[in-house]
Amino acid sequence: MTSLRTPVEALAAGHPTYSQTFPCEPSTAELGRDLVRDVLGVWHLDDLADHAALIITELIANASRHTPCPEIRLTVGRPSSTRLRVGVVDREPSRLPVLSQVTDDDESGRGLLLVDAVADRWGYDLHGADRRPWGKEVWAELRTEGGK
Length: 148
Fold this sequence. Notes:
148 residues; 5-stranded antiparallel beta sheet; 3 helices; 28% helix; disordered N terminus
């Protein structure tokens, strides 16, 4: 297995995606941030690392708080040459993300508000058959320098 910490030349062709499965628990956020930073380093997109790390942290927090799944899959991809996408896949398609309204006194509920503020766009995709999906991916995208 190749370590992401080993410098490699990023390929100019195709749209790569890295993914890895982790336990669905809050402590996975540190591993998720490391994965995002390592992948963005390989792609020479270090300028997006802080925003992407914040996004993946919030998506992991939501999955660990709002789903009973034992595992989640983290994804970091390039759907195009001008976009970076980070996401969390879980097996709870019925628990969809909701952008909530919070007051100054609320102690939680701001995760997707942060994602919405930082990302260029975000959403979710259901996985599996239309009538019986097995899971969902909650994702957010950032523009790369060529996409500004």
